[in-house]
Structures are given as structure tokens and as C-alpha cells.
Design brief:
About 80% of the residues lie in helices and about 0% in strands. The protein has 11 helices and no strands. By secondary structure, the protein is an all-alpha fold. It has one domain. It is elongated, with a radius of gyration of 20 Å. InterPro entries: CysZ/EI24.
Length: about 250
């Protein structure tokens, strides 16, 4: 696993990968800015009009609790761009990855596995759908863990472990679905859940590093291509008939 991570890191800056790397970073930056500004405006609304609306909905007995929540949200709104950049990064990388998954996988397979049958590119709509589903699931889990971050340090550990599970799951399935039908790829992920979660810890560590995490889709996809190959074992006829028909 460590060898796979090292290979993915070293290949990120190789000449064939640089164009994808810069495009991925550029798109991630645009999405971060747009989503972070949107988050800041949403929090600002809640700190003012939203708090009044919530008190009218719940009743005056909730006044003190809503005041405390409004105060916390006001602080978060002031840090909206920074907050968004940190906590939305895993969701953003999921969306970005869906656009570049096959470009990255093609380069890794061509360089490291030239004697094996190459994978089949995922349909664009399917890749985008997978990215959107993971991004939305990431945001939902993070929102659920947010109170723990605000009131207890354990929330940060929950964020890290959730990121490892979510991103490990997504990137492995994207790598596997180049060779297998979706249901078979998901079944393989479940059968190797512990290994893939451990691999996801590498991705979670990578996405936790500011600036560097803009390249997460490149590293994570290259890493999981290697992991899928190793878990598949020696199997020259990797493309399943059901996958070839797609």
C-alpha cells in the first residue's frame, strides 16, 4: 500500500500528468470560491433573518438556544471562505475527480501495467453522477458532525475518518468500474472494506494538507488504480464481458 502511494505521488508531477494536474487544480479553485462564498452568504442569512424565522417556528422558549446558535453561526460566517475551503474540499475533489478519472487512470495503466488490458472509460454521465452522490453524502455527514467540531475536539477525528471512508470508497469504485460492472465493483469494495478504508486514510491525510489538497483527485485516482490492480491479482483478462458491452 505504501508503495502504491509513493508511485501515485511520484507520477503526479510527471510530464504526461501535468496538464491534468493544472486543469484539476484550476477547477477545484473555482469551485472552492463559488461554494465558500455561497456558504458565507447562507450563514450570514441565518445569523440575521434565519434566526428570527427559526424562533418564530420553534417558539419563544428556544430564544436563548437560538441566540447561542446565531452567535456561533455569525463567527462561522466571518470565516466563510476559509471554513468552506477546509470542510468542503473533500466534496469538491469528488466532483473534480469525476471529470478526470479516466485521463488519470489511462496514464497510470499505460506506464505501470503496459502488458495488461487497459480499462474502459466510464460513461461521462455515470462518472458525474458518482461524483455528485459522493459530494452530497460528504456534505451531509459533515453537517451532522459539525456540532461535535464546535463543542468537542472529537469532531475533527470524525471528519478525518469520514473522509477516509467516503473518498476511499469513491475512488476505488471509480477505478474498479473501468474493468467491472458497477455492482461487481461495489461488491469488490465491500469484500475488501478494511483494506480500502486503510487506503482511504492516505487520501484523507493528503486532502487535509492546505494547498497540496488541490491535487487530491490526481493522487487519489492514481493510488486507487494501483490498489485495484493489486486486489484483483494476476488476471490478464480483467475486463468482464458485462463491462465490455457498456
Amino acid at each position: 500500500m505504501l508503495d502504491a502511494a509513493v508511485k501515485a505521488l511520484s507520477q503526479m508531477i510527471s510530464p504526461p500528468m501535468r496538464s491534468i494536474l493544472w486543469r484539476s487544480i484550476g477547477l477545484a479553485l473555482v469551485l472552492i470560491i463559488v461554494l465558500a462564498i455561497g456558504l458565507q452568504r447562507l450563514l450570514s442569512w441565518f445569523a440575521t433573518s434565519g434566526a428570527v424565522w427559526l424562533e418564530e417556528l420553534l417558539g419563544p422558549g428556544w430564544h436563548s438556544s437560538i441566540d447561542i446558535l446565531s452567535w456561533i453561526v455569525s463567527i462561522a460566517a466571518g470565516l466563510g471562505v476559509v471554513f468552506g475551503g477546509i470542510f468542503l474540499m473533500p466534496a469538491i475533489t469528488s466532483l473534480v475527480a469525476s471529470l478526470f478519472v479516466d485521463d488519470v487512470a489511462d496514464i497510470v495503466e499505460r506506464e505501470h501495467y503496459p502488458a495488461e488490458q487497459p480499462g474502459v472509460a466510464l460513461p461521462f454521465s455515470q462518472a458525474i453522477l458518482e461524483g455528485i452522490k459522493t459530494a452530497l453524502l460528504t456534505i451531509l455527514i459533515y453537517l451532522a458532525a459539525l456540532p461535535l467540531v464546535l463543542f468537542a475536539g472529537a469532531g475533527f477525528l470524525i471528519f478525518f475518518l469520514a473522509t477516509a471512508w467516503l473518498l476511499g470508497r469513491e475512488y476505488f469504485e471509480l477505478a474498479a468500474m473501468r474493468f467491472r460492472p458497477p455492482e461487481e465493483a461495489k461488491a469488490m469494495r465491500r469484500d475488501n472494506a478494511a483494506t480500502i478504508f486503510t487506503a482511504g486514510l492516505f487520501i484523507a491525510a493528503f486532502v487535509s494538507i492546505p494547498i497540496v489538497n488541490l491535487a487530491t483527485p490526481i493522487f487519489a485516482m492514481a493510488f486507487m488504480v494501483h490498489m485495484h490492480k493489486r486486489l484483483s491479482g494476476p488476471r490478464p483478462e480483467l475486463i468482464a464481458p458485462a463491462r465490455q458491452m457498456r
